[in-house]
Specification:
Length: 406
């Protein structure tokens, strides 16, 4: 009998392992990415690029790390070379991740010998991203005495359009984000039904983040740890009138609104999903504010399509709020790009002339913020398709869906 139970347990474990999905993309994916960037470098008249931004390194090689003072940088050449400079203490970490590059390590930083000298003699026209710090650029200039350094956005432009393998990771992140939104609402509803104390912003934020993290480790293998892995901002009442306010000890109260501004990353690819909830029967003002944002977000969805400028989409979306006399409560743009960063180009804002393309991912998150009252924002991560855009996140947006009876 005991042996039969053991066999059943082993079968169950095997089935679970088969059901789990790996978050890591194969080495061939990154080699294909590198080939595309090499072609773009050649078109730009560059011989190589030195990428030291952590998300650029992850995009090009599959090596994810927490950036610090110790340089980690990829030297990618049009000649087919890909060399990752990193501190020796990161070597095993990079090997474990099957990093798609030759590894060259240095002992420590700042070091008796400057780290970038370990790359050897570098010549020709070498690109670097605008995100490189002034201090880092000085170090590279000193080490690459025979090279001409040229600022370029080659990698940034390559990251704008997502590949199918990336889109699948974003979709899974959206599924988990929806689970977190549902879990947050359920926690509040259960507390109300039991007559217990409503949670604080910080308690609610901690709970929904734990739901996302637990789900990921239960259902995925090779979890790619980035920051934040799962969670987000939670704010209630007048605190929610501050778009990027941090969770506090303030407890949710009947009659007020509260916002779950959540997201997570699967395989390092982010998604955000945000909903504003109302505790109890909404007042006339609460209905007006919420519906204005909902209509603006719907208009923003309809305006998102390939061939349209970011600035024009942003204007169409936010004009809905202005047209209802609420423009004075606007405090930010419609949205931004999402990928290996929670915020990255393109920007859905009046100053961005980028033309949208199929495969881009952007947030659609208009909001209004009424001082001493609260904030209202609805956000979905959107995938640009051939004929428009569709949301990754699916939590309902209707007014009735966000009212929690008290």
């Amino acid at each position: 009998m005991a042996q039969a139970q053991t066999t059943q347990a082993q079968k169950a474990q095997a089935q679970t392992a088969q059901a789990q999905r790996s978050q890591r993309l194969p080495v061939d994916f990154y080699r294909s990415i590198q080939d595309g960037v090499r072609a773009a470098l050649a078109d730009a008249g560059l011989d190589a690029i030195l990428a030291d931004d952590a998300s650029d390194v992850a995009y090009l090689t599959g090596f994810f790390h927490h950036p610090g003072e110790r340089p980690v940088a990829l030297l990618l050449g049009v000649d087919g070379t890909a060399t990752l400079l990193l501190p020796e203490l990161e070597r095993e970490h990079a090997e474990w991740q099957n990093t798609a590059a030759e590894l060259v390590s240095y002992p420590e930083f700042p070091g008796v010998r400057p780290p970038f000298e370990f790359l050897g003699e570098v010549a020709g026209r070498v690109g670097y991203a605008g995100s490189m710090s002034v201090a880092r650029l000085a170090e590279v200039t000193a080490a690459f005495g025979k090279a001409t350094l040229v600022r370029t956005d080659v990698v940034t432009r390559a990251r704008l359009v997502k590949r199918p393998e990336e889109i699948a990771l974003h979709a899974e992140a959206a599924r988990i984000t929806d689970l977190m939104l549902s879990a947050g609402r359920t926690l509040i509803a259960d507390a109300i039904e039991s007559g217990g104390q409503l949670p604080s912003e910080a308690e609610l934020a901690g709970y929904v983040g734990s739901v996302g993290t637990r789900t990921m480790y239960a259902e995925h293998t090779d979890v790619v740890v980035v920051s934040p892995l799962a969670g987000g901002l939670v704010y209630a009442g007048a605190n929610s009138a501050h778009p990027h306010g941090l969770p506090s000890g303030y407890r949710l109260r009947p009659g007020e609104v509260f916002m779950l501004s959540l997201g997570c990353a699967v395989g390092g690819r982010f998604v955000e999903g945000e909903r504003t909830f109302i505790l109890g029967e909404p007042t006339a003002d609460q209905r007006r504010y919420y519906e204005a944002v909902r209509e603006a977000q719907q208009t923003g969805t309809e305006a998102l399509r390939p061939g349209v400028r970011c600035a024009d989409v942003n204007r169409a979306c936010l004009d809905v709020i202005r047209g209802q006399g609420l423009g004075g409560f606007l405090r930010h743009r419609q949205g931004h790009g999402i990928g290996l960063g929670m915020h990255e180009p393109p920007w859905l804002e009046d100053g961005d002339d980028t033309v949208l393309e199929t495969g881009m991912i952007v947030s659609n998150e208009p909001g209004i913020y009424v001082p001493e009252h609260g904030g209202y924002r609805i956000s979905d991560s959107m995938l640009l398709t051939e004929d428009g855009a569709r949301p990754f996140t699916a939590y309902p947006r209707g007014l009735d869906d966000v009212i929690i009876p008290v």
